[in-house]
Amino acid sequence: MRDSQLFGHVTAEAPGKVNLSLRVGPVRADGYHEVATLYCAVSMYERVTASPREDEAITVSISERSVFSGVDLLDESTGERVPAEIPLDERNLAYRAAALLRDRVRQQREGVLSGPWLGSEPPSYGVDLSLVKNVPVAGGMGGGSADAAATLVACSALWNAGLSKEQLAEIGAELGADVPFALMGGAAAGQGVGDELSPLLHRGTLHLVIAPASVGLSTPGVYRTLDSMREQAGVRAEDPDLDPDLVRAVSQADAETLSALMVNDLQAPAVSQLPELDDLLDLGLSEGAMQGIVSGSGPTVFFLAHDAAHASQLATSLEERAEVWALPVTAPAGGARLLTQKQRSAGGAHAS
Domain-by-domain residue ranges, the chain? Predict the structure, then answer.
């Protein structure tokens, strides 16, 4: 039996993330910026179901169960909101993840003996990917990277690749700095362009409230705005680093210390493009949040709460007063994981 015939479909999930701290340094020779960041996975998950195909095609679709199925992007030049759909072709990170993994699996199996006997036809590595998107699109929370991470886990199981999570992370690193983190989850310090990860041992739970904006921002555009703001102010970017006290606070889930040390160099350029973010941050603090900052390149905002009850109350207050969607989450959350495998049988599909 061919691998693609073994399972009817496989489902996996991977978490979105916030940056509890993000320091941005100078522009490198390759055009990217040096950063020092502290990633933290949150209990907000993208879910991917991979179903085998008899041909070699890869397809991507957005499930009707998705909370987010599209986004308006802010045009840098005009300031207008332009509708933008999630790409479903090779521009989609989930598509690219499946294609990369397929290449790796084929390379691994090139040396396996095959012959003209019955049933020796090469396996098909086509796959239909259905995405349930629960992380804000273009919101600075790594939703696309979580899709890619979940795809790697799901397709690895579907194709019986036998790859460890560390090996999948190596593949994911080719797609972007956030993919390996979405695979591993938890909390980690990131250096370089954010791809040099140092996982943190952590205990305890942090309680956050996520408040997505009604429009997305371009990550490269936010970085360009930061460069422009620094140039206009005559500020020279320094090599970034992480505060050791911040790292300890996250490791120990010390919300009090963390609240005083959270910082994001991309917050000012994000707010300059969407001034209403400033009002939302002020409102959260006035409603009792310990601290609030923009996540990554934005425009999603998150707030630090004292405990679960406080997070729930804060989310309700934000929804009532600002008419925004707000969701209490916990952190650090686990990384990408397999959820279900539906196995084919003569009598139909059943849970394995």
Answer: 3-204+333-351, 207-331
